Amino acid sequence: MIKRNLLAVAILSVVATGAAQASDGQIQLNGNILNQTCTVAVDGTPTANSTIVLDGVPAADLEKNTLNTVSGGTLKGSDVMRTIQITLQDCALPSGKTKVGVSFDNTGYGQSAYSTYRNMLLDSINTVATAARGVGIGFTAPASASDLVMGETKSEFTAPEAGGVLAYDYQIRYVRTADAAADVVAGDLDSVATFSLVYE
């Protein structure tokens, strides 16, 4: 399996129910593909440099949906905050491979048990005081909007046509990783997600 990595940086905010003012959040996608076999774009930006503004949500909104993890568990999460599209074009597949897909990696800030990306603001003494707790970032695919995607087993593989564009849509959600709603602490959320191109 050959992988190509793209860096996605999420800067998100979760506000407590009944807060006097809502805070906005954003997910910023930055990165590049090394030794690429496909030209990759995120939301139409070929360099994969893009900033997508997300709304903040009340903590109570984390209870709106039931989401399925890759490992078979369930978590509560928000409605879709944003849909992003990853497109692949001019793919030259490795020898012996006929299809290509996108895999959200479970390395780095990935949390395999929750199929989400954790809040890295909790790692720094400079940001821990204002960091959200008990919340991660998850991605679902429109075809299975209740299933969180992480790892190759949840990849959709497609055979590219010469000169054709393959489009993969993913929905961004806030996901409660705390055991109970009362354990969620409002604050800022910043995470790093990576995705790879995978082949079969």
Descriptive terms for the model:
15 strands; single chain; disordered N terminus; 200 residues; seven-stranded antiparallel sheet
Structure commentary:
- The protein is mainly beta and 200 residues long.
- It is 0% helix and 46% strand.
- It is built from no helices and 15 strands.
- The protein has strands at residues 5-15, 24-29, 39-42, 50-55, 57-58, 65-68, 74-77, 82-89, 100-104, 110-111, 116-117, 135-141, 144-148, 165-176, 187-199.
- The relative contact order is 0.28.
- This is Type 1 fimbrial protein.
- Keywords: Signal.
- Residues 1-22 form the signal peptide.
Give a quick rundown of the structure.
This protein has 200 residues and is mostly beta strands. It has no helices and 15 strands.
Give helix % range: under 10%
| Gap from first CA to last CA | 8 Å
- The residue ranges in which pLDDT falls below 50 over 5 or more consecutive positions are 1-13, 16-24, 31-35
Strand content: over 45%
Helix tally equals 0
Q: Could you tell me the radius of gyration in angstroms? A: 17 Å
Can you count the beta strands?
15
- The coarse overall form would be elongated
